[in-house]
């Protein structure tokens, strides 16, 4: 089995064994019927005594029970003995099978997190451990999990996530659906190309990272993000590339990163803008249930074809993640964006608030419901409309994944997001619905 850093391994494995003792009674709260109950009790006693090999041999002599309660216990013991005997991949299959229909079983999720840790699937291990922290665990177990999370942060080198999706869009150019717009007090008929246009897109997105150890709690880190939306009308194709590079400090329970950033955007297959600057980001586990994060990025930005919009943009956020239970969490982020340009009519402040709720349901369904509200306040009047633009923007989203359906590690993803931009200049009013049908995976 995969070892832990020497500074934490004795504490961790003593805590794990302490949790294992009497585990099913405390965490699963499973009863036993008549058939097979005695054998399962014997297997459980062998596991509690640290005799996983004997327990597994005995379990192999018992057919899988038909009773749902006994079947859950049987599958759990099968996975637990596999994990203790150094077969974490097999254990992952067993534990995930249980959580598909019973996502609230804390002990199963705890062992799934440990199995992911053993195979160095750190993103999944981190997520499972963070969910378990919301379960009002004994202090020794909480300390154990926090040690695992510190070990994950310390050893992580590579990270990768990819998404492929069809993306139907009712308004690919984020434009008004009005036929007439008033300019200088006179109505004008809008060109069809300047009005709301629907389209079918293909989204490809990937994020990759690498950490090079420098010292005990220091890493040199590189992060690359790339996305591309390809539409049936090439005029609306949108591509983005961002590279960050710099040091990361790993104090207990958190991390602080300082990075230089360069980024490039293409729109309609033509170069659109580019920028360079810096970012500082920090996160910490404030309490077992509460995680905090903050970020500030400042970028000098230059446009290829419209130098009036050259300037700088600063983006800041303060976020919180709170565990409701071992299968649900909420997130909230306060954001602020300042766009400073050569001309005041393009400069604006844009504060906002986003919230999201993530829940694992039975039947293998994971849902994330989110919402955003923000106010964009421009500095100077738009000479075309003789008015200073002010927008309210609202959006709501729903994303569903089927976590028990997987092909090559990719899970199906279905989502919808609806956005309303309410401006005091009707030319900038619009609504937009974006759909997503695809697959996603984190490595």
What is the architecture of the largest domain at the second tier of CATH?
A: Beta Barrel
How many DSSP H or I helices?
9
Strand order of the largest sheet: 1-4-5-6-7-8-9-10-11-12-13-14-15-16
CATH topology of the largest domain: Porin
**What percent strand?**
over 45%
Mean pLDDT: 88
Question: Oligomer, anyone?
Answer: single chain
Number of domains: 2
Helical amount among residues, as a percent range?
Answer: 10-25%
Domain Protein kinase G tetratricopeptide repeat containing: 37-133
Keywords: Lipoprotein, Signal
Organism: Futiania mangrovi
Signal peptide: 1-37
Architecture overview:
- The chain is of the alpha+beta class and 443 residues long.
- The chain has two domains: 9-155, Tetratricopeptide repeat domain (Serine Threonine Protein Phosphatase 5, Tetratricopeptide repeat); 158-442, Porin (Beta Barrel).
- Helices cover 25% and strands 47% of the residues.
- The protein has nine helices and 16 strands.
- It has helices spanning 9-20, 23-28, 37-48, 52-59, 68-84, 88-101, 106-118, 122-132, 139-155; strands spanning 158-169, 180-183, 186-189, 199-215, 218-231, 238-249, 254-267, 270-285, 290-303, 311-325, 328-341, 348-360, 365-382, 387-402, 411-423, 430-442.
- The strands form two sheets. Strands 1-4-5-6-7-8-9-10-11-12-13-14-15-16 form a 14-stranded antiparallel barrel. The protein has a two-stranded antiparallel sheet with strand order 2-3.
- Strand 11 and strand 12 (348-360) form a beta hairpin.
- Helix 5 runs antiparallel to helix 6.
């Amino acid at each position: 089995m995969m070892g832990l850093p020497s500074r934490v391994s004795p504490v961790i494995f003593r805590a794990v064994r302490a949790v294992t003792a009497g585990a099913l009674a405390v965490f699963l709260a499973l009863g036993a019927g008549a058939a097979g109950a005695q054998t399962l009790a014997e297997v459980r006693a062998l596991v509690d005594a640290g005799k996983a090999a004997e327990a597994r041999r005995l379990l192999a002599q018992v057919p899988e029970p038909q009773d749902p309660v006994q079947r859950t216990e049987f599958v759990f013991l099968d996975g637990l003995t596999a994990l203790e005997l150094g077969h974490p991949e097999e254990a992952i299959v067993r534990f995930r099978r249980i959580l598909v229909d019973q996502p609230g079983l804390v002990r199963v999720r705890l062992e799934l997190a440990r199995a992911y840790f053993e195979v160095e699937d750190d993103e999944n291990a981190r997520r499972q451990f963070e969910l378990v922290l919301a379960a009002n665990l004994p202090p020794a177990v909480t300390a154990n999990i926090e040690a695992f999370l510190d070990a994950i942060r310390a050893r992580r080198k590579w990270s990768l996530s990819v998404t492929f999706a069809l993306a139907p869009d009712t308004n690919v150019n984020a434009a008004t659906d009005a036929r007439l717009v008033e300019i200088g007090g006179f109505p004008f008929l809008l060109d069809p190309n300047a009005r709301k246009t629907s389209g079918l897109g293909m989204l490809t997105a990937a994020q990759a990272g690498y950490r090079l150890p420098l010292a005990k709690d220091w890493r040199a880190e590189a992060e690359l993000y790339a996305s591309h939306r390809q539409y049936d009308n090439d005029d609306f194709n949108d591509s983005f590339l961002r590279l960050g590079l710099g040091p990361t400090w790993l104090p207990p329970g958190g991390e602080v990163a300082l990075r230089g950033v360069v980024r490039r955007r293409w729109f309609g297959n033509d170069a659109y803008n580019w920028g360079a600057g810096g970012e500082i980001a920090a996160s910490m586990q404030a309490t077992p249930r509460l995680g905090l994060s903050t970020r500030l990025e400042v970028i000098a930005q230059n446009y290829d074809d419209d130098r009036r919009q050259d300037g700088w943009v600063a983006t800041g956020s303060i976020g919180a993640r709170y565990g409701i239970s071992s299968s649900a969490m909420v997130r909230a982020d306060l954001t602020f964006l300042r766009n400073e340009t050569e001309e005041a009519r393009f400069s604006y402040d844009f504060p906002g608030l986003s919230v999201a709720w993530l829940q694992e349901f039975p039947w293998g369904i994971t849902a994330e419901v989110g919402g955003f509200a923000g106010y964009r306040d421009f500095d100077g009047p738009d000479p075309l409309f003789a008015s200073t633009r002010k927008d309210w923007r609202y959006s709501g989203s729903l994303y569903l994944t089927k976590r028990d359906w997987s092909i090559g590690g990719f899970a199906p993803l279905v989502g919808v997001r609806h956005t309303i931009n309410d401006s005091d200049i009707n030319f900038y009013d619009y609504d937009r619905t974006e759909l997503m049908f695809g697959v996603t995976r984190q490595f």
